[in-house]
Amino acid sequence: MDYNAINDYGNRLKKINFGRTISLDSGTKEQYYDRFIKKADFWNLEVDNDFNTGKYAKSFEMYSDQIGRKFSTSFELNETLKKAIFLPPAEKNNKRELEELFKNRISRRKFDNTTWSLQNLSNLFSGIKALTDNHRGYASGGGLYPVNLYFFTQNIIGLENFSVYRYQPCSDSVIKISKMRYMDFTSYIHIENLINSKNIKLALYLVANRTKNEFKYGERATFFSLLESGEMIQNIALCASQYDYKMCQLGGYDIEKSNETLNIDGITSFITACAVLGG
């Protein structure tokens, strides 16, 4: 099925539905109410009451390989090391106490013309990379880590301009996925009072893949993916605060264009968070 067919099929099933019926800047109040209130039942999750049946635990056996290694611990199998760009170690920076980091975490919409390199990315992603024994600084239901970080680039030394990259936390590397379909960040993001969009260095997206955890948790997996995304974006925001990077989390992104450029269908894999960063 093509992109639109997949989207329509998911909507008919009343799975996760991101229907685009009217623009936010057009239409009547009644249309707005219909879109966001009356159609809330389009997001219909049939959540089991408990796990006592054992069917979720048994599902792990289906995903075990021939030597008995469990699916939930095979993180590195999802990372591509060929052509990957490895990031340098994060810079040590202890100039702020934790309380000050919280105070410094604010949305910033004015970006200066600064120079960014792989070092800046390493600093920024240090809060979500895999540490000893693949432990990470945030929780994930069942240790399945269904949420990946993708980002679009603009003037970052060492990376191709206007390209899509995926961060690989186990190897602390990034790998190019494709070129951006539209060579302008404003085609994807919409922020009120944004100043100097050309100085934005990256637009990042957190993308949840339902196949990575739904086999174990059923439709509870959606809740777990959203919780995980919240922890990830908070860690990234605190790293931005620590290194004095400007960051603005946003909900005003074009879903269709973003999905197409990320090459996701919006149903099996869907965006859970978006933010832009710069200096």
TrEMBL record:
InterPro entries reported for this sequence: Bacteriocin_Proc_Enz (IPR052544), Nitroreductase (IPR029479), Nitroreductase-like (IPR000415), SagB-type_dehydrogenase (IPR020051)
Nitroreductase domain: residues covered: 103-273
Highest taxon of the lineage: Bacteria
Stated name of the protein: Nitroreductase domain-containing protein
SUPFAM superfamilies (alphabetical): FMN-dependent nitroreductase-like
Molecular-function GO terms, alphabetical: oxidoreductase activity
Family annotation (CDD domains): McbC_SagB-like_oxidoreductase
Organism: Lactobacillus taiwanensis
